[in-house]
Amino acid sequence: MFLGTFTPKLDDKGRLIFPAKFRDELASGLVMTRGQEHCIAVYPLAEFRQKLEEARRAPTTDRRTRDYLRVLLSGAEDVIPDKQGRITIPGHLRGYADLDRECAVIGALDRLEIWSLPAWETYLEQKEEGFAETSEEVVPGLF
């Protein structure tokens, strides 16, 4: 389970060091791909494989399914972090998420998301006000 917000910096080579608390779970491999709202979604390899099994059951006769899978999988990269918990984010994903030096890595339950720090701050500012109002509608009985 991934929780929290961290603000690591990308180095000049496009590398990012994951927070120490996530390194063990990602050490054996991960998949990063395009996420919604122009972030990078990072899944442990086992979790991504499970998502793919679920996707196999989706009807590929439906154009929306094909479109979604094409966008998701065409941007996917499987990576094994180095011993320091560092990964290199490919240029196409850095461009997609508009990543510069300042990043936000947020826990999103079954995945991490890597955001441009300014984009994350803007998103959070826009969504926080409606957060309390939607809890019963989005996940009934959660809190």
Automatic annotation (TrEMBL):
Keyword match Transcription regulation: yes
Record's keyword annotation contains Cytoplasm: yes
Main location (coarse class): cytoplasm
TM ranges: none
One cellular component (GO) term of this entry: cytoplasm
UniProt record, GO biological process: negative regulation of DNA-templated transcription initiation
InterPro entries from the UniProt entry: MraZ, MraZ_C, MraZ_dom, MraZ_N, MraZ_sf, SpoVT-AbrB_dom, SpoVT-AbrB_sf
Keyword line: Cytoplasm, DNA-binding, Repeat, Transcription, Transcription regulation
Location(s) in or outside the cell: Cytoplasm, Nucleoid
GO molecular function: DNA-binding transcription factor activity; transcription cis-regulatory region binding
Domain (SpoVT-AbrB): residue spans on this chain: 5-47, 76-119
Subunit structure: Forms oligomers.
Record-stated family: Belongs to the MraZ family.
Name this polypeptide is given: Transcriptional regulator MraZ
Encoding gene, per UniProt annotation: mraZ
